[in-house]
Amino acid sequence: MISPYKTMWILIAFDLPVKTKTQMRIANKFRQTLKNSGFIMLQKSIYSYYAFSKERCDIIEKQIKQIVPDNGHICFLFFTDRMFKMTKHFYGRLKVQAERPDFFDTLL
Question: Residues comprising the binding site for Mg(2+)?
Fold first, then answer.
């Protein structure tokens, strides 16, 4: 059995400039590269990757470091599988502002 204290997760959080179409294209290419490398999108700029060991994490880190876009900021966080399983997700209630159209009363 693989120990949850030795298997690892990588969490990448990043901030990339997206003010121009070129920057957006570069940011989207970076996201696609993460997905093609086995990362799972948690949020638009937060991705996770399951690795079997710290050594595998180190290899992935070196690969991603080589493709960081100019003016980008990438943050790597490393967690054991045990720690990652303790993460909790909270979602707010969906609130939609719906206004009745002016002509609604004439339809009744």
Answer: 15
